[in-house]
Structures are given as C-alpha cells and as structure tokens.
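thoughts on both lines:
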Amino acid sequence: MRIGVYAGSFCPVTKGHVDAIEKASKLVDKLYVVVGINAEKKYAIPQDARLTMLQKAISHLKNVQAVVHSGMMTDFCKDVSATVMIKSIRNALDLQSVIDLSDINKSYWSGETVFVVGSKEYRHISSSLVRELAGLGKDFSEYVPICCVDEIKKYLAN
C-alpha cells in the first residue's frame, strides 16, 4: 500500500487546498492530510476548527484522512509508513520552497517529496489572501469551500 502525506496549516482551508488534495489522493492508496502545528506560530483559527473544516471540505475523498500533528512532518511520515510527501506548487516561489524542503527532508526521512501543480483557476488563492480579505470586511466566499464559509467568517470577520 502506497501511503502519502499532504501537510499544511489550513488557516483557513481554501479551494486551492482541496484541488491539490484531490490530485494528491490519486497518487497514493492512502493519503493523510495533516494540519501541522507550529508552536512558534499564532493561528487566526484554532486547531480543532481547522481540522473540522478540513474534514468537511475533503469528506468526498474516501482514501483521505485528516489529522493533526505537531512536530516534524518527517516524523509523522515515519510513524504512518508514508513513502511520499506531496506538496502543491502555485508559482516559482512555491517551487523553490518545496525544493529546499525536499533537501531538508532527506536528512530525516528516506521517502520522496513530490509536488502537484495547482489548477490554473486556483493558483492565485492562498490562506493569507482569504485572511486579508476577511480582515478588510470583503467577501472571500469564492475562494473557500462552501461548506466552510460560515465557520471561517466566525473566526476571521472583523
């Protein structure tokens, strides 16, 4: 069984995330989508809410399980016997970041870091864009899964 990991902060989950997770789910038999926790970072949406929204957004994918992990993602990969970590690429900056991450991962884990390219219609979407629009009181609903709009508004509205 080929096991993969797709990680992010999902603060909040976007249509771009869902698109990338759908693509990643086709590459493996089992995909863990991990809400990563960085103790040094302050999140606009609590961990449990990010996990719940992510679970709703990907519930249509039968080989995908959303979980929370704090610590190095390579440790999580080893714990679940994952052979591949899947990252999404929107632009050249993302590509450089994934290349750098792949090099670091090799020091701690024997698996491969691969990437999927975000669909053209979603490449401009990021969680930070959604947070910025929400902070400005603008409608961001076209950028996030419809099942999560109200929950996201609860945390990001002025």
